[in-house]
C-alpha cells in the first residue's frame, strides 16, 4: 500500500511546476506545449487555483419533522372524487 501512495505523491509533485507555452507556426496554426518549440514561443500565465463551492449548511431538523411537530391533530377524511356526469367508469386500455 505504501509504494502505491508514494508513487502517486511523486506523480503529483512532478506535475506541479509544469509550464505551458503557446506559439503560432508558419501556417497560422496555434500550438500549445509544455516545452518551448519555436523561438517565438510565449510562456502562458499561471492559472489560478481551483475554485470550490461550499453549500449552505443543512437545517438541524428535516422539514417533515418540523411539520409533524406543528401538526398534532388528525387529517380530515376526503370524499373520493366524484365521477364526471354521464360517466360511471373510466378505463385506459
Could you characterize the architecture of this molecule?
With 93 residues, this protein is of the alpha+beta class. It has a domain at 18-47. 24% of the residues lie in helices and 11% in strands. The chain contains 2 helices and 3 strands. It has helices at residues 2-15, 63-70; strands at 21-24, 30-33, 42-43.
Keywords summarizing the entry:
93 residues; single chain; elongated; alpha+beta; three-stranded antiparallel beta sheet; 11% strand; 2 helices; 24% helix
Strand content: 5-15%
Rg over alpha carbons? 33 Å
Mean pLDDT across the residues is 71
Number of extended strands? 3
Structural class: alpha+beta
Basic shape = elongated
| Main sheet specs | 3 strands, antiparallel
Number of helices: 2
Widest β-sheet, arrangement of strands: 2-1-3
The ordered string of helix (H) and strand (E) elements is HEEEH
End-to-end span in angstroms? 61 Å
Q: In terms of per-residue confidence, which ranges show pLDDT below 50 for 5 or more consecutive residues?
A: none
- Helix fraction by DSSP (H/I, runs of at least 4): 10-25%
